[in-house]
Write a structure and sequence with these properties.
The structure holds 2 protein chains of 2 kinds. Chain A has helices at about 5-15, 15-30, 35-45, 50-60, 80-85, 85-95, 130-140, 140-145, 155-160, and strands spanning about 70-75, 105-110, 120, 125. By secondary structure, chain A is α+β, with helices and mostly antiparallel strands. In chain A, helix 1 packs antiparallel against helix 2. The model of chain B is unreliable at about 795-805 and about 810-820 (pLDDT under 50). Among the domains of chain B are: about 5-95, Ubiquitin-like (UB roll), CATH 3.10.20.740; about 130-290, no CATH class; about 370-505, 3-Layer(aba) Sandwich (Dimethylsulfoxide Reductase, domain 2), CATH 3.40.228; about 715-815, Barwin-like endoglucanases (Beta Barrel), CATH 2.40.40. Classes of the chains: A alpha+beta, B alpha/beta.
């Protein structure tokens, strides 16, 4: 599906433009890796919002990137359990060793994988029991680890149907 | 009657009142930042928290601005928890607010300053480094200082809900929250200037007021905006109204401040403009004190063609001598006060016995008044406030460019769920921003379209809009008075035969309604503007008066104007500015600009409003009524008026529609609003002026609607421009970035067909003539339309073009042989 078709799909699922906006932003970020102006322009056409409004909403959220960012994003949890298991060391390692053109390293809050701490996320795919070795491999070959897990809006459609 | 216990005192309240309303009405001090009486309640600043105990005994802090009073509530505004909250809220706001009050323009009228002083802590334990933002150029009207922002969200709330704009927002979050337009873009909304007024701190400053003075140095003068026929109530702020006493300057007065308007702010009038004024009203004041364009003393032309500066006695004697017993005609711009129009009517119609008196531009100067023809009297039947009641609103033409001030009510109506239709050849602002539905009316087919509202079986193309009209409980027509005459008559007729329909006639002349009321019109048998020019060009007129009008800018047929001025032996130009038509004059009489004279103006709904003089007249200029009075006295009439008030009193006796006025506008009736004195920006608006309407009677005569014809083919539409279309606004340099160059707007399909690109130069061919213009490709323009905006001097239309709309042969890419 092209981006426009995906945005149309989002619009179909969330009839209210207010509800559709965040999902549409996710679609654009999936497509380009960041909120590319071309993508934002498509949103303005499909949802009817002005670019100012879209940027205003996107800038509120930490995980939307308004600056050019690579497609693969490695998030490392730094909450209590992961921190005790050395998450900050991993984060430091990742920040020092990642190729900024290939992988974007960010800090995430608890992702509910405390039993596999230190844990992380690669584009939504959970990374469990991280060590320096596995992390190094992930940073070098992120495609290999990306299982393509995406949130589907179809599940949520019923929740939002009535607006 | 429901009651609450406020600080131990029993007080009554009406259903739906908030705790803040009740507290303020009873003189309790509750501070606010994000609250404004006309904005939706945001309840974001938390400084208005009060202690509340409901009937079940639950006690806690609640925001007074967002809490509705309930019977039996107990409310305390001065207990220790409340005070503690106020202190901590202010302390937290100040952690990030720079202490640059000495250089901040808001100093002296800053809510944060005042509330910190009255409710804030004396010391603070928060000593963090403060945030900084890069400088953002938001256009000529603004000086943004985002680091002073306290995140009250008043600006964005106003911008979305009242101004109806879409290009201002709040970005990022937490400490780094920053408001404004998107990076590197200018704010482009006709109400954006109000942000300066409602900002509680100095985060949004006026571009004109920047670093000039302090609010306590200013004298506030209530006046009426002369920019358009809405007659927005404004406060003109000057250093001193009367800088001289007995020839000496007041103590501390500076030479450059003597004749200077520092800024213009809104003034509350709930029936007209509420609090809000447009940018055109707010920022157009430079023309008053930009003295290089102003005429200082009367000038007469000597035999060798040189200007001679004379005093008023000589000038008036000379003019009186030359008009006696001659064929006189007068053209006005419809911009003076009612008093001046009345005095002028007395002079021309009763002393000089001429019927050739008109104030309308030739394309709108109809031989018979189109509204009078259908409903008996030429005036709107609706009030501006009726927009708030209508279910369906039908707008003809481009409101944003003619009377932008009614836009606040249109946006509100759209948000309320009323259906708004814009019947216009191109998509205008309210359609573009999603507030209205667009009904494409081919240019020149207005009569045909308006006829559909009058018949049972409309053209299927317009069936939807007509059905919406028939279904509505109360619908409103809004149309300009320079639309096709038959179209105006049709709409007026439709509203006259149906009680559920009213219409609002947008006068394109700022005081057009007043000029009609005092009969400064050629009816019944005088010559209209077009005919006067034609007669003058044929040498059938001896004396031509031009009063506050620049025909060489404003009229389409520039060649005819030049011919008329050249063939008239004695041209008297009454103007404030050295405009091109003064070249053809025998006498130039300097008159005051609107903010220099007191007087009344009648707005488009028939509201007689009084404006005070904010400044002394510049040098030797005089109010127009004084000039007419002096000429009447010199020509054998009697005009005993000593001031504008006496002219008004005389006018009320002699003008039919003003005889029923049950008030005297000079004694401005007002109500006090229960705002506390210590919140400065709201206290400034404390007086609510309510000018009642003049009462008109309407009689329906036997008028039948005219069908008209539907036009198609390529059409050049010459339409209004908000800044360039105004006689005063275009003289202000501050509007310059928004004044477009000599540009035509075309559709993308037309551009593709003819190989044109955005920004190209092109040749506009009208009949045998060719003009070089810049091209802007716009998606708002349909395929068969070429749009041109603004005063007409930019497009050198040197030969006669009848009417407003001209068929165009072609618009081709410019060839190198033609140089303009």
């Amino acid at each position: 599906m092209t981006l426009r078709e995906r945005l149309e799909n989002v619009k179909r699922i969330f009839p209210k433009a207010d509800s559709a906006l965040i999902a549409a932003l996710h679609e654009v970020q999936d497509e380009y890796g960041w909120l590319h102006p071309d993508g934002l322009k498509l949103i303005t056409e499909v949802l009817g919002y002005t670019e100012t409004h879209i940027v205003s909403v996107a800038s509120f959220y930490h995980f939307f990137h308004l600056e050019p960012t690579p497609k693969h994003k490695v998030g490392i949890c730094t909450n209590l359990t992961c921190m005790q298991k050395g998450a900050y060391d991993l984060l430091k390692f990742a920040r020092e060793n990642a190729d900024p053109k290939k992988v974007f390293v960010e800090e995430v809050e608890c992702i509910g994988l405390c039993d596999h701490a230190p844990a992380g996320l690669l584009n939504g795919t959970p990374l469990k029991d991280l060590t320096v070795e596995t992390l190094k491999d992930i940073l070098e070959n992120p495609e290999k680890y990306d299982e393509g897990y995406r949130e589907t809006y179809e599940d949520m459609a019923d929740l939002y149907r009535d607006g | 009657m429901a009651k609450i216990l406020l600080n131990g005192k029993e007080v009554e309240f009406k259903e739906g009142e908030t705790l803040l309303d009740i507290a303020w009405r009873n003189g309790e001090k509750v501070p606010v930042f994000c609250y404004h009486p006309k904005l939706p309640v945001w309840a974001g600043c938390r400084v208005c928290l009060v202690e509340v105990e409901d009937r079940r005994g639950r006690r806690g802090l609640k925001p007074a601005c967002a809490t509705r009073a309930e019977n039996g509530m107990k409310v305390w505004t001065t207990t220790e928890p409340v005070k503690e909250t106020q202190r901590s809220v202010v302390a937290l706001l100040l952690t990030n607010h720079p202490l640059d009050c000495p250089i901040c323009d808001k100093g002296g009228e800053c809510d944060l300053q005042e509330i910190t002083y009255l409710f804030g802590p004396t010391t603070s334990k928060y000593t963090f480094p403060k945030r900084l933002f890069p400088k953002h150029d938001a256009g000529p009207y603004f000086d943004l200082e985002p680091h002073r922002c306290i995140q009250c969200f008043k600006c964005s709330t106003f911008y979305w809900t009242i101004g109806g704009g879409k290009d201002w927002s709040v970005f990022d979050r937490g400490w780094y929250t920053v408001f404004g337009p998107e990076k590197d873009r200018f704010v482009n909304n006709e109400f954006s200037g109000n942000l300066i007024e409602i900002c509680p701190v100095g985060a949004i400053n006026g571009g004109d007021y920047k670093y000039y003075t302090r609010p306590w140095n200013l004298e506030l003068v209530p006046a009426i905006s002369p920019e358009d026929s809405l007659g927005a109530n404004v406060t003109v702020e000057v250093i001193s109204r009367k800088p001289y006493t007995k020839g000496k300057m007041v103590k501390g007065g500076k030479r450059e401040d003597v004749h200077k308007i520092v800024r213009i702010n809104g003034r509350e009038n709930p029936d007209v403009n509420e609090f809000w004024i447009t940018d055109r009203d707010r920022f157009s004041h430079e023309y008053v004190y930009n003295h290089k364009d102003r005429v200082d003393y009367p000038h007469l032309k000597s035999r060798d063609g040189k200007w001679v500066k004379v005093n008023w006695e000589i000038a008036l004697d000379w003019v009186a001598e030359n008009v006696k017993g001659k064929r006189v005609a007068v053209i006005s711009g419809g911009r003076g006060t009612n008093e001046a129009a009345y005095a002028g009517r007395r002079l021309f119609k009763e002393i000089l016995m001429t019927q050739d008196v008109d104030f309308r531009p030739p394309h709108a100067a109809f031989k018979e008044d189109p509204i009078r023809r259908a409903v008996g009297y030429s005036a709107s039947t609706a009030k501006v406030a009726d927009i708030d009641k209508a279910d369906a609103i039908f707008i003809f033409g481009d409101v944003r460019e003619t009377v932008p001030g009614i836009g606040i009510r249109l946006v509100r109506a759209a948000r309320r769920g009323a259906r708004i239709f814009v019947l216009n050849p191109y998509r205008e602002r309210y359609v573009r921003d999603g507030w209205a539905e667009w009904v494409k009316v081919p240019a020149g087919s207005e009569t045909y379209v308006t006829y559909q509202f009058a018949v049972e079986d409309p053209d299927p193309e317009f069936a939807d809009v007509v059905r919406a009209f028939k279904d509505a409980k109360f619908s409103l027509f809004i149309f300009p008075d320079d639309m096709e005459a038959e179209a105006q008559s049709n709409l007026a007729h439709v509203s006259a035969v149906d009680d559920r329909v009213k219409f609002l006639l947008l006068r394109t002349a700022p005081n057009g309604q007043g000029f009609v009321d005092v009969e400064f019109t050629p009816f019944p048998d005088g010559s209209t503007t077009g005919e006067i020019l034609q007669k003058a060009a044929n040498g059938e007129i001896d004396v031509l008066f031009l009063w506050e009008v620049e025909p060489l800018y404003e009229y389409y047929d520039r060649n005819l104007v030049v011919k008329a001025l050249e063939n008239t032996p004695f041209v008297v130009v009454m103007t404030s500015f050295w405009d091109p038509s003064t070249e053809y004059a025998s006498a130039v009489l300097p008159i005051t600009v609107p903010y220099e004279e007191e007087g009344t103006r009648t707005n488009l709904e028939g509201r007689v409003q009084y404006g005070k003089d904010a400044l002394w007249p510049y040098e030797g200029s005089r109010p127009a009524w004084w000039i007419f009075k002096s000429l009447i006295n010199r020509l054998g009439g009697t005009a005993p008026w000593r001031n504008a008030r006496e002219v008004f009193d005389d006018m009320v006796k002699n003008v039919l529609v003003y005889q029923n006025l049950d008030f005297h506008p000079y004694d401005m009736p007002y109500e006090e609003r229960p705002y506390p004195d210590y919140v400065p920006t709201i206290a400034k608006l404390k007086r609510v002026y309510r000018y009642p309407l003049a009462s008109y009677r309407f009689a329906v005569e036997g008028y039948t609607p005219v069908k008209g014809e539907k036009r198609d083919g390529l059409i050049l539409l010459h339409t209004h421009d908000i800044y360039r279309g105004s006689y005063y606004a275009f003289r202000n340099r501050i509007h310059k970035p928004f004044v477009k160059e000599k540009t035509v707007f075309i559709s993308s399909e037309y551009a593709e067909k003819h190989g044109l690109k955005d920004g190209d130069k092109a040749l506009l061919k009208i009949g045998p003539r060719e003009y070089e213009v810049a091209v802007a490709v716009s998606k708002d323009v349909p395929g068969n339309l070429i749009l041109f905006r603004g005063f007409f001097y930019d497009l050198p239309l040197n030969e006669s073009i009848t009417g407003k709309i001209t068929p165009v042969d072609t618009l081709n890419p410019s060839s190198s042989t033609v140089q303009s």
